[in-house]
Every structure is written in C-alpha cells, then in structure tokens.
Prior knowledge:
The chain is an alpha+beta fold. The chain contains four helices and five strands; from the N terminus they run ααβββααββ. β4 (about 160-175) and β5 form a beta hairpin.
Amino acid sequence: MTLPPAFPAPDHKRYFIEKLGISERLMERCLGEALSAGGDYADLYFESVTSTSLGIDESLVKSASQGISLGCGIRVVSGERTGYAYTDDLSTERLLHAARTAALIASGPAKEQMSGFRHTSDEPTLYPITGATADAEIAAKLELIQRADQAARAFDPRIIQVRASFSDELRRILIAASDGTYASDTQPLARLRLYHSRHFRRWRPRDPRFL
C-alpha cells in the first residue's frame, strides 16, 4: 500500500487561486459589490470539499463513491440586519450576482471601501496526519480496508462475517472580509469502520442424570 506521508505545510490560498481561479482582484470586486448599496461589513466564505466512501462485505466491494462540492457564501451586515447569498458556481458573473443579492439589505452610500487584504505569514498546518487522505489514490484506500478485512478474519477462526468501510474528506476553506482580513485552512478527516460477527456453538442443557 502506497499512501502519502504526513501533510506538508500547505499554501492554503494557492488551491483557490491556482485551481479555482479565485484571484484577490476578484474577491475585492465581490466585496465592493456587496457594499455597493451600503453596509458596515461584508465577507466571502469559499469552501471546497473532496470526499471518498468505500465499503466491502464478505471480502467483496459493495459500494464506492467519490465527489466534489464547492461554493461561496457572501454576507453583508448593515446595522442589525444581515443579508446572505450563496452560489455553487464560482464564475465571475455568478459571484458578483450573489454579492449584489446580499447587498440588497442595505441602502445608502457604502460605509467602507475595500483597500486590499492584509497578508500574514504562512498559516500553520493544524492537522498533520499520516495515512489515507482525500488526495490519495482510491486503490490505496481500497487496499486499506481489504487489509482490515483480512486482519479481522485472521484474528479468530470463529469470525464468519466481516464488513469494512472507509470514508474521508478534504475540506478547504478561504475567507476574505471587507476589513482586509484574509484567512484559509485545510481540514483532512478520515474514518475507518469494521464490523464482524462470530459463530458460537449452540448451547445445550446438561443431562440431569449427571447433575
């Protein structure tokens, strides 16, 4: 089984900029639109989740799935009112449209103008793990649960049924706000489950003649 080593220190922002095309200029435009009708504060919440799920029963693969979901939530705060809009289409047009929708709760001149983001030092890796991740090959993950199946069967000859499953997700988050704050994170999660049942000899009452 070949799985990647522990997570290297990632550049959390690079994924959104290079893979999804979410540039700082685009985020500034979206925040500008969000505050265009007035408002005290606005922020963008980008999220991308890659997930895998595998299951075997009686040493046979019974289920396998992979998926990717992504989107952006845009919030505008004006006094005690909050406007919110969401889009799972990260094209420039849809992001700007969502920003304008969130802006509808405010009226009047914008109270705050975007003037760029404050860059901080590289964010640390908060979840350094070794083993299967959403970026690993699905064949390596399948091999992992097959090994678990074999280990369970070898543990006790009375074990007659084994079910094993593996699921994981890699969640990437990017937040940009109108006050210039800028943060991102990568959150890997994984879970391995194993169920088994044993065969026991049927209990029989003792012969009373020998009591």
